[in-house]
Design brief:
Length: about 300
């Protein structure tokens, strides 16, 4: 298929190589019908104009045989010019954009610029033709402002966009559940990352003291495993719950491994990686993959952890 020869510049870092993410490829796989039809139409009209000029030279008896070459040349030139204007820009734009959905939001990369949008900050998405007639996937924030437009060139890209759009709307419509009672102790509350982690570590240490010889977390923290696995909770609460669980005297690593995958929000993966026993769940390689989607102070904590 046309354009299949264009491969990702860095396949190893692509969203499509990370487990658990919804990231169907939107890369060009062909030519959209409407712009091609318009290009041929304008080329045909231009060729008809050239034929009219040639006919005029025949009537005026100034006709030369070389004038006949004017008709196909004008057709080819006009068709290619219109195709270049309508297709080249969208083609390279489609090559630069990569989108993936995880459990907590949307990861978007355009060239070297990356951004992360939690579901609560995302607005509706739509799939419709632009002024060129090219089907375009448009994503908006909660205020309705578009932050990403991806031209879809080819049937495969269009089918991938439909799949992505369906999953996008389903996840965005998912309910954010009320915070559990323990969430007040877990919330960041605007604190710097270091202060937040100290508070969470203190919560885990206090739980260990109260658990005593029984090696069990007290009842007010018994719901932490379900919070970590609950996609209806915010990324902040899930991340904090995972951190406290890993600070307990006998953390259940197997249960957390099942709940924390590469599709977990970047903040959740970060706090698991920074926890005392979390590197067995989120490796340095895995956390480096989500580093671009973290805040500067959060990304700096990765280097501080060693």
């Amino acid at each position: 298929m046309l354009f299949d020869a264009f491969q990702p510049r860095e396949p190893d870092t692509s969203f499509h190589h990370r487990k658990g993410l919804c990231a169907p490829s939107l890369r060009p796989t062909g030519l959209p019908a409407e712009p091609v039809r318009r290009a041929f139409t304008i080329g045909g009209v231009s060729a008809a104009g050239a034929a009219y000029v040639v006919w005029g030279s025949v009537v005026q008896r100034s006709f030369e045989f070389l004038d006949l070459y004017l008709i196909p040349l004008v057709f080819v030139a006009a068709t290619l010019l219109v195709a270049a204007i309508t297709l080249v820009g969208p083609f390279f734009r489609a090559l630069r954009v990569e989108i993936a959905l995880d459990e907590g939001g949307l990861r978007c990369a355009v060239d070297e610029y990356v951004s992360y949008y939690p579901w609560v900050l995302l607005g509706p998405a739509q799939l419709e033709p632009d002024w060129r007639g090219i089907p375009t996937l448009t994503l908006t924030n909660e205020s309705g402002r578009a932050f990403a437009r991806v031209p879809l060139l080819g049937k495969s890209a269009h089918a991938s966009a439909v799949t992505l759009l369906r999953s996008y709307e389903q996840r965005r419509a998912g309910r954010i559940l009320p915070a559990p009672p323990v969430a007040r102790s877990l919330a960041r509350q605007g604190r710097p990352l270091s202060a937040w982690l100290e508070a969470l570590a203190a919560l885990g240490a206090a739980s260990n003291k109260r658990a005593g010889y029984r090696e069990q977390a007290p009842s007010d923290l018994a719901e932490l495993p379900s919070i970590v696995a609950d996609l209806g909770q915010t990324s902040e609460i899930r991340a904090a719950a995972a951190y406290v669980l890993l600070a307990l005297r006998a953390p259940d690593l197997d249960a957390l491994k099942n709940a924390i995958t590469e599709a977990a929000p970047p903040l959740v993966q970060l706090l698991v990686h920074l926890s005392p026993a979390g590197k067995a769940i989120v490796s340095r390689e895995s956390i480096e993959a989500v580093r671009p989607f973290l805040e500067p102070d959060e990304a700096a904590a990765i280097d501080g952890a060693g």
